[in-house]
Amino acid sequence: MFLRLGFTSFGGPAAHVALMEAEVVVRRKWVTREEFLDLFAATNLIPGPNSTEMAIHLGYRRAGTPGLIAAGACFILPAASITAGFAVAYERLRTLPALEGLLYGLKPAMLSIVLAAMARLVLPRKKDWFFLALGLAAAAASVLGVNEIGVLFGGAALGAIVPGSKKPPETPATGTKKAKSSPAVLAFPLAASATAGGGKLLPLGLFFLKVGSILYGSGYVLIALLRTGLVTERGWLTEAELLDAVAIGQFTPGPVLSTATFIGYLIEGPAGAAVATLAIFLPSFVFVRASAPILPKMRASPRLAGLLDGAAAASLGLLVAATIALGRGALIDLPAWLILAAALPVAMQPKINATWIVVGGALAGLAVRAALGFAR
């Protein structure tokens, strides 16, 4: 499932999380909506890419540590592979592929999936006025430019002070399989590949390991960290190469942090791509494995349950703000609005696989662009 999501998750973290909600809450019922919100809050409270950590959390809930590794790796692999392919072409051609027609229809289709997921997550809490007010305040604060970390932790603190529902979430029938292994084994291929090569491999791996360990907030934070470390301090990339790498991360499905794969390839070839990818995502596996067993205990504690509720409300507020930004970029003309109008009723149907909405939106976008080009 996560391998398929890795190939079809366009639109950034908000869209990724919406696709996961449709799959694991609505279609497969692996977790309840309350549990999904708790996991979503937890991914925002720790550093790293939220949607990737959501996949890792859900994998752990489904099948323990092996599930954690399988879900995370399968969600990351498609983006890393596609990005590596673009890196090979870019090194030879020094230009980016033209994907505007594909993205034109994908964006409103993904927006419909996000709107449907938000409706399903919010409607069960429609009578919880504190939760709704906190979520709206978080959305407004984010739109007005307040720092995302401040919004998130502020919401968590308010939830702990004025706790909402203390009722633990319903446990799904599938349960969680416990495992004795640790995701720390992922560190061994990173260390081996970094030390086996020479030159820039080890410092490259350490740099991306640091980025993956401290990254909070939006893509702008990632760009700032990459620019400071790779362009200004080390001189390994030019400004133009960095911008192209970030653009590729946005174009490809799956985690935006696949940008690291592109950069690693430009700096040290295939070995650099592998090291950079492993390094930037490894902290997420470690953080999720360390925090996942704590969440049920937090939910069972009245005060900590309020903290989770506050963080969940603030996280949904940030999701609303991200959706507004996604809408501005997607709904640029009447045909885009029509694609959204056609996709939204389909996205609200729980039995329909969201992958078909993604494919349909892409095909509609290509058709519209072809028709406009023919008309001209």
Helices, strands, pairings?
Layout lengths: L1 H7 L4 H15 L5 H13 L4 H44 L6 H23 L6 H15 L4 H14 L25 H10 L4 H14 L4 H15 L5 H13 L7 H33 L2 H7 L1 H29 L3 H14 L6 H22 L1
Quick overview:
It is built from 16 helices and no strands.
Your description of this structure?
With 376 residues, the chain is mainly alpha-helical. It has one domain (1-160, 185-349). The protein has 16 helices and no strands. Residues 165-174 and 177-188 have low confidence and may be disordered.
Radius of gyration: 20 Å
Broad structural category? mainly alpha
- How do the SSEs run, as a string of H and E? HHHHHHHHHHHHHHHH
List segments where confidence is low: pLDDT < 50 over at least 5 consecutive residues. 165-174, 177-188
Instruction: Please report the distance between the alpha carbons of the first and last residues.
Output: 41 Å
Number of spatially distinct domains = 1
Backbone shape: globular
What's the pLDDT, averaged over the residues?
Answer: 82
Strand residue percentage: under 5%
Oligomeric nature of the chains: single chain
Number of helical stretches of at least 4 residues: 16
